[in-house]
Design a protein that fits this description.
With 323 residues, the protein is mainly α. It has 16 helices and no strands. It has a domain of 217 residues. The protein is 77% helix and 0% strand. The relative contact order is 0.22.
């Protein structure tokens, strides 16, 4: 095949595979955001059934372990790595960071308003960018910075009408900020873990670490562990299987192919999903400003989306032209 014929034949198999993999990872990212976005509803239902905040965080992770273990077994066996999911250092670090994220998130909810806690938590992408740039010496694309700025404006519009400036709640606001730092580092750690292990193995391993820490926190805080109603129990299982096994699992899938900086924008999609669920399930109607904020978030994510790797695509076409 001549070079002109190769150019006319369209993208090479390598280029198509790359594009397909990125599209699948983006779909996983969106699916993970939607699954995680409904978790506040389940937390509220579990709380109404008498389950403490740290206890609900523990059950969110612990009840997902059998599902994640089964998934990891299938993944390990298909990869020829044996019948037992194994741990990596990066996965353990991911579990520690995720535990810190959930602990500070629940503390922030207790010490400040939900709107303030949510707003500060959405600064996670900023911390991902700063750490990637300053500590990992990664080059940050201009589109990423612009996209995060647009998403942040959208986040302000989405929840800004409920924000409160209250010095008495400063401690809670700082805890919300700590949530963002832990969650931002979590993205980077999971991406590092995904370089050496599959999504299921990483998610199962980090969940084991997280569940131990959260159980200790719940016991120390004196949280009620058991729900008083069957509805509360159902909420815990739904939060665990849907929001954690599904949401965090899909996020781990996405981080195997998408940059951590871009993937961290999932928190904004999560905020949109949470707002829509609150509207449908709890009757908390969206205002025009909130709707515009959601639209800005979608625009910001589109601006920050990963670009086609022209050099690799061109190399693949060149290789095809030589055959």
């Amino acid at each position: 095949m001549s070079a002109p014929e190769a150019a006319r034949s369209g993208p090479s198999p390598s280029a198509r595979s790359l594009a397909s993999g990125r599209a699948g990872a983006l779909a996983a990212l969106i699916g993970g955001a939607l699954a995680m976005g409904v978790s506040p509803l389940f937390v509220r239902l579990a709380s109404d059934a008498g389950v403490g905040p740290f206890a609900s965080a523990f059950w969110r992770v612990a009840l997902a372990l059998p599902v994640l273990y089964g998934w990891a077994l299938l993944e390990e066996r298909s990869a020829g790595l044996g019948a037992r999911p194994t741990f990596t250092k990066a996965a353990v670090v991911s579990g520690l960071l995720f535990a810190g994220d959930l602990l500070f998130w629940h503390l922030a909810i207790l010490k400040t308003t939900i709107a303030n806690a949510t707003f500060f938590a959405t600064t996670a992408p900023i911390w991902v960018v700063l750490f990637s740039w300053l500590a990992l010496k990664q080059k940050i694309r201009r589109e990423i910075v612009v996209g995060i700025a647009i998403c942040t404006l959208g986040g302000v519009a989405l929840i800004g009408n409920s924000l409160q400036v209250d010095p008495a709640k400063l401690r809670g606001d700082l805890m919300g900020l700590a949530t963002a730092v832990f969650f931002g580092l979590y993205f980077i750690a999971v991406q590092a873990a995904r370089k050496h292990a599959g999504a299921a193995r990483v998610t199962f391993a980090l969940s084991c670490v997280t569940s131990v820490i959260l159980l200790a926190a719940a016991l120390l805080a004196g949280d009620a562990l058991w729900p008083a109603t069957m509805g509360g129990l159902a909420a815990l299982f739904a939060m665990s299987w849907l929001s954690h096994a599904g949401g965090q699992g899909l996020l781990s899938v996405a981080l195997g192919r998408l940059p951590a900086v871009f993937s961290s924008l999932v928190i904004f999609l999560e905020a949109i999903a949470a707002a829509i669920v609150a509207w449908i399930a709890l009757g908390e109607a969206l205002t025009l400003v909130q709707s515009l904020g959601g639209a800005l978030i979608l625009i910001g994510i589109w601006v920050a989306r990963p670009r086609a790797e022209k050099a690799r695509t061109q190399e693949a076409r060149t290789q095809e032209a030589r055959t």
